[in-house]
Amino acid sequence: MELLFARNELNEKPKKVQLDKIKEDLSKDGQKIFYFDRDNSHKDMMSLVDALEADGYNVYFREIKYGLADEEYMYEVHAL
């Protein structure tokens, strides 16, 4: 599964990441907060949450609004 990390600047393209890399980062640190771009589908984000929970992590998922427009949001995934 390929996901997009949140952008640092509004006009730049989001960076891609594989599910294996996310799991590798979690195995090193034990817990981590990831921010994902709004271009990811909600279905893909739920698949990520399910995959991490299947590996035994507690996962907190939410949508973060950072502006007033409808498209000004990102996804936050906190895995413990």
The order of strands across the largest sheet is 3-5-4
Number of strands: 5
Given helix and strand content, the structural type is alpha+beta
- Work out the helix count: 2
Helix content: 25-40%
| Low-pLDDT segments | none
Q: What would the average pLDDT be, to the nearest integer?
A: 94
Strand content: 25-35%
Can you offer a commentary on this structure?
With 80 residues, the chain is α+β, with helices and mostly antiparallel strands. It has one domain. The chain has two helices and five strands. Strands 3-5-4 form a three-stranded antiparallel β-sheet. A hairpin with a 7-residue loop joins β4 and β5. The longest helix is centred in the middle third of the chain and has 13 residues. The model has no long low-confidence stretch (mean pLDDT 94).
Keywords:
single chain, 80 residues, alpha+beta, 3-stranded antiparallel sheet, two-stranded antiparallel sheet, 31% strand, HP0268 domain-containing protein, HP0268
Secondary structure elements and pairings:
Elements: E1 2-4, E2 16-18, H1 19-29, E3 32-36, H2 42-54, E4 59-65, E5 73-79
Antiparallel strand pairs: 1-2, 3-5, 4-5
Pfam family, one: HP0268
Protein name: HP0268 domain-containing protein
Domain HP0268: 1-80
